[in-house]
Amino acid sequence: MADYKINTNMDTKLTLLTTPQKYYFTHADRSMIRRDWLSLLPDMKARPKTNYIKFTRMVCHLVICISLSLENIILTCKVRYYIHNLADKIHFGASGLRLELCSKYGYFKVFEHHKEYYPKSIELLKKEAWLKLEGPISLDDIFNAYSNCAKSKFRELNEKYNQSLISLTKAFDGNMAHARSRLELGSLFPFEAMTPALVAAWAGEPEKAKEYLEWGCKVYNPRNEEFRRNVGELISNPEHLRETVRTNREKHFSYAPYQDIIGVPYKEKAFT
Predict the structure, then answer these.
(1) Per residue in 216-234, is it b (16+ CB within 10 Å) or e — as a string?
(2) Other CB atoms closer than 10 Å to residue 52's CB: what's the count?
(3) In this structure, are residues 117 and 106 in contact, taking their beta carbons and an 8 Å threshold?
(4) Which of 27, 54, 148, 166 has the fewest CB atoms lying closer than 10 Å?
(5) Residues 145 and 264 both lie in one domain
(6) Is 1 part of a structural domain of the chain?
(7) Domain coverage including residue 72
(8) Are 14 and 4 in contact (CB under 8 A)?
(9) In this predicted model, what pLDDT tens digit does every residue of 161-190 receive, in sequence order?
């Protein structure tokens, strides 16, 4: 604790005899952290003019993000990775393919460990990220990312489904059949289930879009006919998807550097 003395020239105002402990991140601190991270993320760009540190790159209509949550008082940094899908009007703000580093490099005290830990954090993110932080990305890369993520979440999905089924069964006086039918009107993770199909349609690959739609229905909710019908309408009109992407990007991610998917017919000229 700092020592104090009475300043007799200014009545009872207190003067610190020692340097006060730091309790918050200054603008200079945030700028330093942002600059250090960007030096190792050549294909990403930081969100401008904000205290919230977020790095992004945009591939087709997917915005790949890294966010750094800086907490004042305890002066820590929490590292998160996730992806936004700008082709979905309803869920574009939702984040899929979430990843948090389960190690000391994912959550650490900044002023003690930043210089040592941030290169390790980025190295781990480049290794574990569902979609790459740099370099070209193909349609197969995107499908494999969502497919692998779904496999890793299989137990979580089943547990969440079963918990919801139990709760609804109680709500419907023990009628499990009615509860199941109500539950299956919606998907647990609709924006993740539909994303590969929307990407393929956007990219000018209609047969792949249909194939990925079937995959989404099978993996996330095999009896959801409403979901199948709604996404089927979306992928049947790729130009409408592209207009949705342009609008969402202009409003929310105009600063994000853009790259097309490699090896597909469609290229977005509006962003290049």
Answers:
(1) bbebbbeebeebbeebeeb
(2) 11
(3) no
(4) 27
(5) yes
(6) no
(7) 27-128
(8) yes
(9) 555 555 656 555 566 565 555 454 444 455
